[in-house]
Amino acid sequence: MSTTKTERPGWSWTSGVCRPVKQTRLATAKSVPRPESLLAALPTELSHSLFAKVRPLSLVAHQTLFVAGDEGDGCYRVEEGLLKASVAAATGGERILAILGPGSVVGELSMIDGAPRSASVTALRDSKLSFVGRTAFEAFGESRPELYRHIATLLARRLRDTDDALVATNFLSVKARVARALLSLGEAFGHDLGKERILVRQKVSQSDLAAMAGIARENVSRVLNDWGSRSLVSRLAGYYCLENRAALQRETEE
Questions:
Q1: Which of 112, 127, 134, 218 is the most buried (most CB within 10 A)?
Q2: Domain boundaries 11-165, CATH class
Q3: Any idea which of 7-21, 50-64, 92-106 has the lowest mean pLDDT?
Q4: CA pair distance 229, 225, nearest whole angstrom
Q5: What kind and span of H or E run contains 112?
């Protein structure tokens, strides 16, 4: 789907990707981070200080923030909207690594280690972001050295998550992969309706679920139809509702 490339104050287009340009005035971040990504899981006071001065950016739905291989010149916090981080699959499709909502931080690894972007990030809907450049990040780290101690701990957690993802890819059944994807969305965006019912308050397509689980969309459709007949998953006004979280958790173990 094509989108109109609209110039925005403080940002320019290069090869179809929106990038920041130097500015002297900075805006203030407003939302509180949630622990969906590395820097978002920092202690609240440290995170607030790091994101005290930011550059604003707006994306329209389906607009690319950056692509795998780009230079990592900074990181972005999601203030409003929804993004996906993905990589190209060996079969020619894509594998969604994460769905990122308000409070999430994306692009932090490349900013920390100086390596190119390891994944592509695209807006699933109109989104507002805040940008922190590498220079500002490094200056903050010099003034607050405890930042790196927390990052080391969080990197260890991310490595464990990567191990879990490898297990899911190689050993879990199709149903277990879909259940794992839905439970992950429920944990990140869920609203507890009581009695083991969780409403995922972000609209996610079957194609996105398939890309998260690493399977074909047709398989996702068959699994969801089966679970719908068993009252494990339903759709409410276009949103997925996990009708029995405990039962879905058991599906990940089969």
A1: 127
A2: mainly beta
A3: 7-21
A4: 6
A5: helix 108-113
> What would the two tokens of residue 36 be?
């969906």
Give the global pTM.
Answer: 0.69
> What are the start-end ranges of the E strands in the chain?
11-14, 17-20, 55-59, 64-66, 74-80, 83-88, 94-100, 105-106, 120-123, 127-133, 190-194, 197-200, 233-236, 239-242
Residue 36 pLDDT: 46
Identify the pLDDT of residue 13.
47
User: Which residue in 104, 115, 188, 111 sits closest to 147, CA to CA?
Assistant: 111
Positions of CATH 1.10.10.10 in the chain: 173-251
* 128 burial via Cβ count (<10 Å: 0-12, 13-18, 19+): middle
The residue type at 70: D
Please answer whether residues 133 and 57 qualify as being in contact, where contact means their C-beta atoms are separated by less than 8 angstroms. Answer: no
How sure is the predictor about 37, in pLDDT bands with cuts at 50, 70 and 90?
A: low
Q: Three-class SS of residue 175? A: helix
**CATH number of the domain located at residue range(s) 173-251 in this protein:** 1.10.10.10
Q: Is the pLDDT of residue 160 over 60?
A: yes
Residue span(s) of the chain under CATH 2.60.120.10 come to 11-165
Lowest mean pLDDT among 18-32, 155-169, 174-188: 18-32
- Range 201-210 contact pairs with CB under 8 angstroms and sequence separation of 24 or more: 201/239, 202/82, 202/99, 202/101, 202/239, 203/238, 203/239, 204/99, 204/240, 208/84, 208/96, 208/99, 208/124, 209/178, 209/181, 209/182
pLDDT of residue 50: 85
Beta 239-242 vs 233-236: how paired, if at all? antiparallel
